[in-house]
Amino acid sequence: MAMGSTRPVTSTIWVGNLSFDSTEAELQQLLATVGPIKNLRLITDRETGRPKGFGFCEYYDKATAESAHRNLNGTDLHGRNIRIDFAEEFTKPGQRNDRDDRGAGPSAADRDRSG
């Protein structure tokens, strides 16, 4: 685990406490200062399309994600100190991971698909 985080290091980071005025381009520019970005996604409300104030950034390796966590956590963007933590590693539907043993039932995505 990385210092200051309770999650294991992954190549994907969660970025939170974002101003609703933050754009994907601004976030990309900031997060790319530590290394190349594989994928960036700001989360929006499905019904209204309005931003939810967080997103995910996937880097090509864990070392770059660690650098983002270490160097960019707390950075000011639009007057807000952004929060960065490591995102959970997710598997493709039908694959098992260490969370499957908890008996929590289907995910929200699985429930949505089942109609």
Brief sketch in words of this structure:
The chain is α+β, with helices and mostly antiparallel strands and 115 residues long. Helix content is 22%, strand content 26%.
Give the averaged pLDDT, no decimals. Answer: 82
Spatially, the strands of the biggest sheet line up as 2-3-1-6
Tally of helical runs? 3
Helix content: 10-25%
Strand content: 25-35%
Q: What is the gyration radius calculated from CA atoms?
A: 15 Å
Let me know the number of strands: 6
Characterise this structure.
With 115 residues, the protein is an alpha+beta fold. Helix content is 22%, strand content 26%. The protein is built from three helices and six strands. The chain has helices at 24-31, 62-72, 108-113; strands at 12-16, 37-44, 51-59, 76-77, 80-81, 83-86. The strands form two sheets. A four-stranded antiparallel beta sheet has the order 2-3-1-6, with helices on one face. It has a two-stranded antiparallel ribbon with strand order 4-5. It is globular, with a radius of gyration of 15 Å. Mean pLDDT is 82; it is low at 95-115.
Characteristics:
115 residues; alpha+beta; four-stranded antiparallel beta sheet; 22% helix
What topology emerges from the helices and strands here?
Layout: E1 12-16, H1 24-31, E2 37-44, E3 51-59, H2 62-72, E4 76-77, E5 80-81, E6 83-86, H3 108-113
Antiparallel strand pairs: 1-3, 1-6, 2-3, 4-5
